[in-house]
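Section 4.2 – Deliverable D4.2 (structural model, holo form)

The reporting period included a commitment to supply a predicted holo structure for the target in complex with alpha-D-ribofuranose. Inputs used:
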Amino acid sequence: MGRIVVIGSINMDIVSIMDRLPKPGETVFGKELQYIPGGKGANQAVAACRLGGKVEMIGRVGSDEFGQALRNFLKGEGIGIKKVNYTKGTPTGTAMVWINGSSQNSIVVMSGSNGKVTERDAIDLGLKEDDIVVSQFEIPNDTIFAAFKEAKSKGARTVLNLAPAVNCPSELLALADYMILNEHEAAFFSGSELAGDLDTVKRYAKKLQTRADQAVIITMGAEGAFCGRGAEEVRVEGVKVNAVDTTAAGDCFTGAFAVALSEHKSLTDSLGFANRAAAISVQRIGASSSLPTRKEMDAAIGKP
Ligand code: RIB
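Output (structure tokens):
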């Protein structure tokens, strides 16, 4: 089994739980405040590690309390952190996460040290053919580009989670072997209106594909996921669960998918595995706090 090398963001999530989200200009009372390790990159690394992957994280934290706590947290999870460096003079990334009683959330990310993950951090990763490089859009595009270029030159596979929805050059998308995004992101990247039906999702996938062997995976929340790769189409049905918080569901899906790939599962089985993992994560509050272990996944097989 190859390594899963995640290059991406590391945040401290400052999570407020409230009955309803405030409207602009409004003040509401919250019910609970929690500090939970997060950041899309770190969440994907934690998901992959808890599910049995051999994971290495590449990223940056500030020389502050959050930075130290997050480094220790990742290490405690069993993730390789030799390349999680401190950046002096820039604070650790943070995210203000608001969750309401209907499992909806609003998130504001302050990038901090994530914006300082450079192309130099992304090279000399000692990649081998069996390795998988995973990234997302909370670090600079040039850095992801350098990491994926290095991965391709070594024959390693690349997984790009197109989140959050921000502009990026098509040359970067072309370096991804697997793109993972939700319907909102798919509408953004394909320059279309959001429409929740399967035919539209299939059209998004076609539009986003830059080469025939590239898999475009669009997650559809409770409706499961769709993947288009050339003429191949795979659809996995949603798992019916009682969702309380969808924060990091996409990260869980991405990390789990990378594990399944590293175990050489088929595309269909990899999508099913990722879909089931994400269904567990939405039943719990928070980012890293919601990510399942392999034991939980095995216990949940057949039991939604
Ligand atoms: O995908 C969820 C993550 O987005 C949160 O953990 C938060 O840090 C933001 O990066």
